[in-house]
User: Which sequence fits this backbone?
């Protein structure tokens, strides 16, 4: 049986769900294998992060191949931090011939926040230029304008931060990403549905698909920490209070309930086209979130 | 101008080693203004070295001199005698000046006393900030006179990253987000349309090292017109 691809699912208007796999630092991959096995048939695709938080890990490309081997569908995350345009393009061609068809284009965190702070930051391209480059490969030319012997066929994704403050420069970039060729967006984590609804009222003007980012909350402390320290994330007071009033030891269960409730609301009210769940180390509970959302 | 900082005393002491006669050459232009390598700083370094030698009971002679600029041969030529008398020369110029001095007196050890930091401005007294990467392809005309190549740590050309927060930078929340500054400036000056287009990737071929500029008036007799 031919399963519908992530692209076909999202483009068909079906509410689409993705989750995330963070490659490990080192060669022990048992836990990651377990997460892939657990999730590959429960979500439409799995993002694979690219040296997330500027910490050196197994390459996104290799883990995407593992997901494919296991019968799942990967989304290759590609940042601009570690590779110049030659390396990015050759990895993209390589990804295509391995059968990887989704790529999420990101700027990447700055290098000094990670575990190799003395390394040379590359940022040869920015995320909008990377999107444009992938589109060019899809059209049979490299970024230098040279003909390819065989083009790629990537479904091009990007990110946007709906709660960014100030919002205008963020939206300027969002619109450039659309013009450059992005077809779908996975947002930074959102928690305030009314704010997100306003963003969607604006974003609906464009012929693109938007998946709301959800980071699993596990405690009021985590929510407060993110409000204070993570740019572009806003957890409203009612959610902080709901977590705070949760019995000790039940924070994770409450977080699962909140995420499930949000997914249900986003889907039932047709606010956006799907959700991207970032469980950050707690991938094991994603099936429970999906059950809570159904 | 070029902004530099003096190396630590320990590092300078280590690189000069057991020299008995040291010539310290200051530079009277950029590094004098940023209080790193002018006449006054030559004096300070000389005093520190002398005191240290005295404390350790070593014999040390230091000659202090400061030239107008070390990046111009005409100011380096008159140093010949002083250089030849010294065991080592410590240059308090930027890296360019150190190299030019070393090139002219290539039988002498010429050592750097500064770390060259960047091209910048005097933000206020005693504080300098970087403003230019010398990228050889200036886009300030489109970005409201604010350089994203320099002010954004990632050098992003098409708007802010997702890490920007309340106009501050994710890399250092004391620093402003270049793209918020650019947006706000263009809002005031009416140039927002400039930045709605997709800026193409930066050209790095034009900044292949080492750079070379010949003034059009001197093109034919390359290098000779100066002589």
Assistant:
């Amino acid at each position: 049986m031919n399963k519908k691809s992530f692209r076909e699912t999202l483009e068909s208007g079906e509410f689409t769900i993705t989750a995330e796999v963070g490659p490990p630092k080192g060669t022990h991959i048992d836990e990651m294998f377990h997460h892939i096995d657990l999730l590959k048939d429960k979500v439409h695709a799995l993002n694979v992060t690219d040296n997330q938080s500027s910490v050196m890990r197994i390459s996104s490309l290799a883990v995407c191949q593992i997901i494919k081997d296991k019968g799942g569908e990967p989304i290759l995350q590609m940042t601009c931090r570690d590779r110049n345009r030659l390396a990015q393009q050759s990895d993209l061609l390589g990804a295509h011939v391995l059968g990887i068809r989704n790529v999420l284009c990101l700027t990447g965190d700055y290098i000094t926040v990670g575990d190799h702070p003395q390394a040379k930051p590359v940022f040869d391209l920015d995320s909008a230029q990377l999107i444009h480059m992938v589109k060019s490969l899809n059209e049979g030319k490299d970024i230098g304008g040279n003909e390819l012997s065989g083009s790629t066929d990537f479904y091009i994704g990007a990110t946007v931060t709906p709660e960014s403050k100030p919002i205008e420069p963020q939206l300027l970039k969002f619109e450039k990403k659309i013009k450059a060729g992005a077809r779908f967006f996975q947002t930074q984590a959102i928690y305030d549905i009314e704010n997100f609804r306003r963003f969607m009222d604006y974003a609906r003007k464009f012929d693109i698909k938007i998946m709301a980012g959800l980071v699993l909350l596990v405690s009021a402390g985590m929510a407060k920490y993110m409000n204070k320290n993570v740019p572009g994330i806003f957890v409203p007071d009612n959610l902080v209070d709901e977590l705070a009033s949760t019995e000790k030891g039940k924070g994770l269960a409450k977080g699962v309930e909140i995420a499930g409730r949000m997914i249900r609301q986003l889907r039932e009210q047709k606010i956006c086209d799907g959700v991207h769940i970032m469980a950050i180390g707690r991938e094991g509970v994603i099936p429970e979130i999906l059950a809570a959302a159904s | 101008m070029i902004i530099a900082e003096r190396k630590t005393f320990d590092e300078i002491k280590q690189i000069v080693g057991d020299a008995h006669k040291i010539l310290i050459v200051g530079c009277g232009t950029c590094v004098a203004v940023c209080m790193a390598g002018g006449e006054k700083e030559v004096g300070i370094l000389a005093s520190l070295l002398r005191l240290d030698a005295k404390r350790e009971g070593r014999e040390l002679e230091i000659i202090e001199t400061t030239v107008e600029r070390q990046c111009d041969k005409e100011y380096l030529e008159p140093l010949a005698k002083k250089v030849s008398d010294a065991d080592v020369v410590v240059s308090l110029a930027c890296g360019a000046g150190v190299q030019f001095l070393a090139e002219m007196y290539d039988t002498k050890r010429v050592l750097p006393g500064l770390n060259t930091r960047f091209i910048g401005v005097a933000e206020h007294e005693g504080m300098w900030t970087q403003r230019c990467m010398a990228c050889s392809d200036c886009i300030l005309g489109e970005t409201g006179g604010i350089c994203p190549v320099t002010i954004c740590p990632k050098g992003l050309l098409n708007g802010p990253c997702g890490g920007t927060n309340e106009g501050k930078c994710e890399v250092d929340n004391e620093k402003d987000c270049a793209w918020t500054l650019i947006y706000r400036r263009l809002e005031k000056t009416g140039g927002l349309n400039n930045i709605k287009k997709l800026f193409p990737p930066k050209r790095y071929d034009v900044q292949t090292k080492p750079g070379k500029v010949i003034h059009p008036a001197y093109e034919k007799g390359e290098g000779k017109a100066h002589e």
Remarks:
- Chain A has eleven helices and eight strands.
- Chain A has a mean pLDDT of 96.
